[in-house]
Design a protein that fits this description.
2 copies of one chain form a homodimer.
Chain A (H helix, E strand, L loop, with lengths): L2 H15 L3 E2 L2 H6 L14 E3 L4 H14 L3 E4 L16 E4 L6 E5 L4 E5 L4 H10 L4 E2 L10 H7 L6 H4 L2 H4 E7 L5 E5 L11 H5 L8 E8 L1 E2 L3 E8 L3 H13 L6 E5 L1 H11 L8 E8 L1 H17 L6 E3 L2 H12 L1 H7 L5 E4 L9 H13 L6 E5 L4 E8 L4 H20 L15 H8 L1 H13 L13
Parallel strand pairs in A: 2-4, 3-4
Antiparallel strand pairs in A: 1-2, 5-6, 6-10, 7-11, 8-9, 8-10, 12-14, 12-15, 13-14, 13-17, 16-18, 17-18
């Protein structure tokens, strides 16, 4: 769409949103990419609505003029789901940042899509609720974006993913209708589960503008520890044994030797440079003590070093901040690089085998890569810091990623545990889900016949 | 469709299924209804496929001749979802009763749709796995039917509903395609969540033929108890306080005074005839002891009697069998009656209020009714034993049910916690979900353009 064609829609959008509609180059550039190597076009403009009605009216104008719509949260995704396409309007949700209601007795909250998880958790502390929203992808992502991506992260092994922690949504569909899904009831059998259909749909079926979320109680006791292992295999087998024994663990994260080195350098820490597990235990004082003890015993039978405990909150936060910064630490190994990150998830019994096969492939590659993962779920990532614009490197990373996906699919796993499909995993999705992708496409076409909602994402 | 029109399709179906295709009157009659008052037509025939391919071929024949399809599990539903419509073929899934794979290390299992939950749990014991499938609607329902209904039951407060315990499905869609959704990975962000779209779709989008289920560990310790209260209100406030305190409870069930009387008579027991809570605690010996103690303390502050503990497995099974038989015990209050049962679910903070309003309405009614519920989830039922064919009674029960639904919706609740929509809650669904129902209808039309998959269910 050329500038001439955009004159009328831009006039209407400016009339609707005033200064919260922008065609400024810097603003457009800021909303052109996510946190990965994926590159898109510049959006033609960026809208910053504050209400459901403003999103609805914006969508109606786009539908009228056939303008593609790219919803944008915090830009912390890594599969290109928020990357713009030619001629698109970016709808940024960050001004929809109000916490609409907190029901402490029912342990639920309703927030606008742009509210971030740290913003919500800070608010819950300020209210003195002793509740928190537990899904934790590391980045301070928006809760709407997390729902759209079906995000999870370090705490999913204990608290589940976004799929498990959303009671309902407000969604603006392709024709601008404001649709409310779900309720505040803890369970329901009321028709099709549209809530979960929109969770993980990456903006291709509608724009999530509000989420009603389940909250968890802050645990009575928390203990965090770091523990080094002689090999990745020893660490992974510790995880498999712990999960098999049903030990209650809130987080259990693997970082390989190179990743630990990167973390030490990036975060100014002095952990042993060895394959390492980061643990966190939540529960009653009794449960935490019992679980920690069992974890220590099992780890030592796999040749681990001692558990290095983070005893107070400051130290615990520092430890986990290092884990959260791992992606940026990995990129920092090669200043100026862009990240390419894999994301398979396999049944836990196959995890050691899948990681071993991956390590073998990485050894014969020219690329340097680190490995880390939410191993309690069977989910791990390989991070390649790539030279921007280097096509050979990108092709090699892609080829390795495809091999890892093939390993995972042969083990009844998935090509993406938590990052989504975006533009990066479209072929892998087809390989994994086969005929089911045609069903997804039928649903997409039915709900968005003009193909304006985040077009080009999920489907090839 | 008259007999002449059915000659060719019946010939083809008989050729496909042999003696597993039946037009016998008794067989048709057996598959004409569910466990409730809802009445349907006789299906024209009943098919008993054993494989995905046979279901697929059956569906293709139906599509070719425009024959409506009614999937049928164990007929234990209560909203008429399995009730036949004029000219329909009933596809009974009970011969698809094979357990296809058990992965004890990954705590998952894949079963055909006709496998019942008790069959599966018996098999898991026989294999010596120390695992069980925890979702427990009371009836020995088929796992495919439970998935199609998004069933839950007594243990949902601890283990979740079918929504939370299914990893993937095999579904035969309206054109006969065999579609596999999900994987064995514990989490995935791979495209639209078709698994959860089919869960609760009540056969209107396709026929679930296989389910891959999460299994739970058998708890180290189990304790069950029954405890009488002076009033329903005292019992409900005990539940609200226990849930608020985060006490770990596996089941917490309310039965009112009339229901306890019915249970005593039906199951030959001698419990006190008073509002009663049935408790079950699962976990480590320590956790169970701790939770039981707190529950006892909180209950006594609400004026409860003593906890009557079921100390061994036989006694525990007897206690819960009485709870499971409650529906039939309620109907037994009036021999020969048919059941009409309500199913609202509200946020826990509103439960006492919703039950109080319901009690007030019941008091001014001519109908006798009992009340029971999965109160830890905010879910409760009123059971009316109706005289078959008595239109006045049915109309009054319906009118009361609508009032209860209105109470629940005003409290951000849902018209159905676990029974589904079927034909009984179609108007209530529209009242509850509004615009979202139109989205559901769009999806239904896209996936089943001929409207042959369980037509007339969910949508008015």
């Amino acid at each position: 769409m050329n500038q001439h064609d955009l004159k009328n829609p831009h006039k209407e959008l400016r009339s609707l949103l005033g200064t919260r509609f922008s065609t400024d180059d810097t603003v457009r550039d800021t909303h052109a990419r996510d946190a990965s190597h994926h590159q898109g076009a510049l959006p033609n403009a960026v809208a910053f609505p504050k209400t459901n009605i403003e999103v609805s009216e914006t969508v109606k104008i786009c539908a009228k003029y056939n303008i593609p719509i790219i919803p944008y949260g915090t830009g912390t995704g890594v599969e290109g789901a928020a990357v713009a396409t030619e001629g698109a309007l970016c709808i940024a949700l960050n001004e929809m940042n109000r916490i609409l209601s907190v029901n402490a007795d029912d342990r639920d909250v309703t927030v606008q899509a742009g509210v971030t998880r740290l913003q919500l958790n800070k608010h819950l502390v300020q209210l003195g609720t002793e509740l928190h929203f537990p899904v934790d992808p590391g980045a301070d992502a928006s809760l709407g974006g997390m729902a759209a991506t079906r995000a999870s992260g370090t705490s999913a092994v204990c608290y589940g993913t976004m799929q498990d922690n959303v009671l309902g949504l407000t969604v603006i569909t392709a024709d601008g209708t404001v649709v409310r899904t779900g309720s505040r009831a803890r369970k329901s059998a009321a028709g099709y589960d549209l809530t979960r259909l929109f969770i993980g749909s990456e903006g291709t079926l509608g724009i999530i503008t509000e989420t009603t979320l389940k909250l968890a109680r802050l645990p009575e006791a928390i203990a965090s520890a770091v523990c080094a292992f002689p090999t990745v295999d020893a660490a992974v087998n510790t995880v498999i044994e712990l999960m098999g024994a049903g030990v209650s663990i809130a987080r259990i994260e693997l970082l390989d030797k190179l990743q630990m080195d990167a973390v030490n350098k990036y975060s100014g820490l002095e952990y042993e440079v060895a394959p390492t597990l980061f643990f966190e235990f939540h529960g009653s004082t009794h449960t935490v003590a019992e679980s920690s003890k069992i974890a220590g015993t099992i780890a030592s039978t796999h040749g681990s070093g001692d558990f290095r405990w983070a005893t107070d909150e400051t130290e615990r936060k520092r430890l986990w901040q290092a884990r959260y910064d791992s992606y940026y630490a990995a990129l920092n190994r090669r200043p100026g690089s862009v990240g390419y990150v894999t994301d398979v998830c396999v049944p836990i019994s196959r995890l050691a085998e899948c990681i071993a096969k991956t390590k073998t492939v990485l050894k014969s590659s020219n690329l340097s890569a680190t490995m880390l993962g939410h191993v309690g779920d069977g989910n791990f990532h390989v991070v390649f810091p790539l030279e921007p614009g280097n096509k050979d490197e990108l092709a090699e990373a892609q080829q390795i990623s495809e091999q890892i996906v093939d390993f995972a699919l042969k083990m009844d796993g998935t090509c993406t545990g938590e990052h989504g499909i975006g533009i990066g995993k479209r072929a892998a999705l087809k390989k994994e889900q086969g005929e089911a992708v045609e069903l997804m496409r039928t649903i997409k076409h039915a709900l968005d016949p003009q193909n304006l909602m985040n077009p080009g994402k999920i489907f090839l």
